Amino acid sequence: MKKQRKLTTFEELPDGEKRRIAEERHRELVRLLQSMAQREKDLIGILAKLFGAPGERNRERVIWQGIVAFANIDKIDDTSSPQLGLIYFRHLAWLCASRLAGELTDPIDDLSIFRDLEFRVKRTGKSPDEVFAEMAPALQSQFRRTLFWLADPNRSEPDVKAEALRFLLESSSESAIHFDIDPVDDFDETGNRGYPLFFWKSIWGYETVASPIAKFIFDQLEQYHAGELTLNKAVPIIVCKRPGCGKFAVPRRRTKEFCSNSCRTLYRQKTKPKAHAEYMRKYRAANY
After folding, report:
1. CA 153, CA 2: separation in Å to the nearest integer?
2. Residues 182, 188, 191, 193: what is their CA dihedral angle, to the nearest 10 degrees?
3. Where does residue 87 fall: left (phi above 0), alpha (psi -120 to 50 degrees), or beta otherwise?
């Protein structure tokens, strides 16, 4: 009977063979990571366009753009606005949830992952979309008060500050985010043949519809407090300077004071009519 040859373990391989295997796996990982990075880059780009910021590629700034887009919806209690709010909210919540998961997970299609919304659906018998439409005005109002505080802390009333901070704390606390934790079946501390982890951790639900977004805002403030982010990066928002506007923007420069060029023009027309008239004369002479 022919004696069966003993298989060589990885440790017994010559260094040259180990290097060949290592280089091959390295190339596979690089290709995989590049494809994942490209997918994430493409998705971020699409979301930036959705939120009105084409060309933006920074994930955190895109999230702020989404928050501002939702907060700036006019007459959200009209029949059409809740649908726009739901579109913004779905993708904004998905992007914030993916940030917590560490990767861009599947989009949020099932709104029952939000406990407060699911409770209202069961109580009223309405669809999740209908219930969200009812919740949208109050949700937008809460985010607007929070953004007013963040954009101009010193001008906010004490009760507004306290309410905004309480909203962020309650919506982003550990009890507001529900996790599933499962032990890994194939533990391997080296990661060569299994997983170098004791357990998988995944988010399966939230206490409120505001939780993933509030968690993002609170984490940004915490990073600013810890000195990990400058204020411009932690909270890159402004509230428009023009009286009666009240809309928010995510400017490139903190010196920007208006949400749009039209608001800047209207402000100058009202507060500095002579200077504005002179500016327009020069503009027409230069361009026409």
Report:
1. 83
2. -110
3. alpha
Q: Tens digits of per-residue pLDDT, 197-237?
A: 787 777 778 899 999 999 999 999 999 999 999 999 999 99
Amino acid at site 255: T
| Residue 230 to residues 11, 147, 169, 262, Cα–Cα distance (Å) | 48, 17, 21, 29
Lowest mean pLDDT among 9-23, 69-83, 136-150, 206-220: 9-23
Residue carrying structure tokens 């039209």 = 262
- Give the other-Cβ count within 10 Å of 101's Cβ: 12
Are the C-beta atoms of residues 212 and 105 closer than 8 Å to each other? Answer: no
Longest Cα separation, the chain: 106
Give the type of residue at 205: G
What letter does residue 96 receive in the DSSP assignment? H
* Cα 68-66-126 angle, rounded to 5 deg: 100
Coil vs helix vs strand at 13: coil
Domain ranges of the chain: 58-257
Secondary element (H or E) of residue 36: helix 15-50
Condensed to tens digits (0 to 9), the pLDDT of residues 100-144 reads: 766 556 666 678 888 999 999 999 999 988 898 889 899 999 999
- The half-sphere exposure of 25 on its side-chain side, counting CA atoms within 13 A, is 9
Residue 65 confidence (pLDDT) above 70: yes
What is the per-residue pLDDT for 218?
95
What is the CB-side half-sphere exposure of residue 108 using CA atoms within 13 A? 25
Structure tokens at 111: 């709104």
